[in-house]
User: Fold this.
Amino acid sequence: MSVRSFLFKKGEPMIWLAGAGLAVSLILIGGLLFLVAARGLGSFWPRPLTLIETKDGKRWLGEILTVEPMPDRKDAAQRIRVKIGNRDLNGLDFKWIDEPDVVKSETPANALLVERQEYGNFHGFLKEIRVGERVVATGDAAGLERLRRLQSEIRPRYNANREVEKRDVGAINTELEKQRLVLRRAELAQAPDLARVRQTTESRISELKRRYEALRERLENERRDLSATTAVLIDAQGKAKSTPVRDIVRIVTPNDLSLFGKVRVYGARLAEFVADEPRESNTEGGVFPAIFGTILMVVLMTAVSVPLGVVAALYLREYARQGRLVRIVRIAVNNLAGVPSIVFGIFGLGFFVYGIGGQVDKLFFSEALPTPTFGTGGILWCAMTLAILTIPVVVVSTEEALAAVPAGMRHASLALGATKWQTTWRVVLPAAAPGILTGLILAMARGTGEVAPLMIVGVVKLAPNLPVDGIFPYLHLERKIMHLGFHLYDVGFQSPNVEAAIPMVYTTTILLLVIVVALNLTAILIRNVLRKKLKSSTF
Assistant:
């Protein structure tokens, strides 16, 4: 047998080659996921703080991240990359130290890692605690215990103060804007009872302003009281830094932690990452607004794209007369799946935002103009743009699922006297449901991972208000949102402190993958239930 016959007629080597290629691909994907998970989830684990003294007499306290050969040396000399923190004192978070210059290295048990609301972590030691100008504790073990107790008392009050400021002050500002728009609407319509409307709204606005002033005064007093207690910290070189206890997020002594203590710190940091708001230009804190925006946008996108895609596929496969026009439509739909996503973003900006949104503003929100309501980016236009992007996937997969339904089932139903619609609704659609859900899974996976079009139609770096809250109408479709994909791009490529943002890049990546897998598993579970139901049915 010739080599040509062996390779192309028998085909077995090609099968083994394809199998090997698939295995290599799976191994590479698994390795990539393991790398991302290890780098991301490992960043929450508390590392020891090492005090390093160099030949020039300087002392640095920080976490040793990497040790590697020095680039300009041919011997075995190495250099150490240390996260030194104290950005407000040193101007940088990381420092390379040449190992030959190190004269002393130790891990002091009383070294502190203080996670702060601003300026990142502080690495150093406690000098004293002050209430106003009065020193109430020193930097010994008792002082550290008192600092922990004060932090656990003051920090919840600070968070509650911020929540009141965000919720109550936000509600008053929303009501003020609503009253202003009521008056403006009456003036534009030249309402006959304009004088009465003006009197009513002005009275309401005066009442709201009184409530605002009273609330502001109460918040200012609370803020002043919370700021009175400060912790004076010193770094490895003796520089002092006074930090209000209210701004201390967490106090950790990593060199003195037991395994259980490290697990507690790890769990607290992981919970903060999932459930809290971002800090420090998104490089620290949590990503909850991005998680919420991503999931809500995918749900809205699915609610739009799946019905439209299924109806379009049903018409093309079951009702349309097969001919040149239908073939052209199918070719156009298939080609849409290959259009770059940024093109959909530009289309969404022109058609949805400026076109439909501009008209909606003129018809229903004219009193708010020139400030746009729906004539600017928002979660509704994000969902609609992604729906247009994913509809071709749903149409193609649904058509394939409908084509897989045996013609005999249709003929049997029609022969029993069922109408065309009854056959489609009760026979064809249930049989094609698993295939339709496969299209749904693919659409959700693509929609969740898309970023380029969203940057144009409504995703922003920081959105303090969620699109769902307790203010009527509760779901605010005009609001801009945060998105995990855009968050990943922002902290990875737009952050002013790229090195500090690297752990956030890995953790956001693994979180985005988890959400995509969770959404897909949900759809797969529904599909399997439908398959079992079909197997146990009359079919």
Observations:
- The longest strand covers residues 59-69.
